[in-house]
Amino acid sequence: MNTIRNGKIARLPEAIRAQLNRRLANHESSTMLLEWLNALPEVRAVLAREFGGEAVSRQNIHNWRQNGHQEWLRAQSAGELMARLGTPGNEMAKLDAGTVVGTMTTFAAARYVVEMKKQEGRGRDDGQAWIRMREFCQDIVALRRTEHLAQRLEFDREKVRAGLAIGGNDWPQMTHF
Questions:
Q1: Are the C-beta atoms of residues 130 and 115 closer than 8 Å to each other?
Q2: Total Cβ atoms within 10 A of residue 103
Q3: Packed helices 30-39 and 14-25: angle between N→C axes, nearest 10 degrees
Q4: Is the alpha carbon torsion for 89, 129, 137, 70 positive or negative?
Q5: How many C-beta atoms lie closer than 10 Å to residue 104's C-beta?
Q6: What HEC string does 58-110 produce?
Q7: Do residues 14 and 5 touch, judged by C-beta distance below 8 A?
């Protein structure tokens, strides 16, 4: 989920936030991070322009660690997972190789199987897990539709190019884009 954040750290340049996230992931202390951040000219400029020059505080670091940093960790984890799923030799990559959406679809199907097995073992239904899985699958279906529409558009463009190359000024009939 990409939430629009408006705190001091959220307003900092992307490169500084990325470095802060890496340092937080390495468990650097808030004291060191505060000294580093508040000494950077780029940070001081943002703070002067948007926050009356008020320095980044421990509370700002705490809030970022609980929210923005957690979002960054999830994005890193998802990126690593997608990279692993797409590596040659990965069984899931062999099932639907070629597109990120295809790999995501295969991954979602595998997650469904795992969840079904868990539910069988518990003898009860965890409704929240299923609701999240269904939402995830709806997102994948929407991505898959977009991917198919893009492929169809490219196919139509190829038909137009072929028609122009073969027939000169004869435009093929196109009923959609």
A1: yes
A2: 20
A3: 160
A4: negative
A5: 21
A6: HHHHHHHHHCHHHHHHHHHHHHHHHHHHCCCCCHHHHHCCCCHHHHHHHHHHH
A7: no
Q: Residue type at 69?
A: H
Structure tokens at 53: 């020059």
Nearest-angstrom CA–CA distance, 175 and 156: 10
pLDDT digits (tens, 9 = 90+) for 96-114: 555 666 767 767 766 666 6
Q: The pTM is what? A: 0.53
Please state, as a whole number, how many other Cβ atoms lie within 10 Å of the Cβ of residue 113. 9
Q: Which amino acid is at 42?
A: E
Contacts of 16 (CB under 8 A, 6+ apart): 37, 40, 42, 43
Neighbours of 102 (CB within 10 A): 19
Calpha distance 20→39 (Å, rounded) = 13
Q: Which residues contact 20 (CB under 8 A, 6 or more apart)?
A: 9, 12, 33, 37, 64, 69
One-letter identity of residue 55: A
- Tell me the per-residue pLDDT of 71-100, one tens digit each, with 9 for 90 and over: 888 778 767 766 666 666 555 555 555 566
- Residue 41 identity (one-letter amino acid): P
**Placement of tokens 């926050």 in the chain:** 51
